[in-house]
Specification:
CATH topology: Four Helix Bundle (Hemerythrin (Met), subunit A)
Helix content: over 70%
Number of domains: 1
Largest sheet: none
Structural class: mainly alpha
Order of helices and strands: HHHHHH
Number of strands: 0
CATH architecture: Up-down Bundle
Strand content: under 5%
Length: 140
Amino acid sequence: MFTSPSARAASAYKRVHIDTGFSTSNPHQIVVMLFDALLLSVGTARAALRQNDVATKGVHIGKAVSIIGEGLLESLDSDSDRPLVANLKNVFGYCINRLTYANMYNDDAALEEVTRLIKVVADAWKDTQGQGASALANSQ
């Protein structure tokens, strides 16, 4: 069954439990919000790590993993053979692995690495102004 990219993006956004207002008519902006929430979660986890607040660190790393796995990965066209889609899947998968490692070993360098990688992708996405949204949106 076909659902619109904006509906899928909105659904992914809701699944990762991010509380903010958004319009389901603009999937590009929803993905921008996912990136922003991801960076905020990683930043909060880093601050909690510095304060030895293990519980808060774990909660925010878990949110970051959910945003990537249930939000950003879900928004990719799973049937695409485009190199960009494959590269994004690899980057997102790598970030999930690094977040998991950071959580297990209290590794701030891993969290910093995820921040740097995601900022590059987020900035590139923001620069597209929605032009790449239809190419990357999952069409299932």
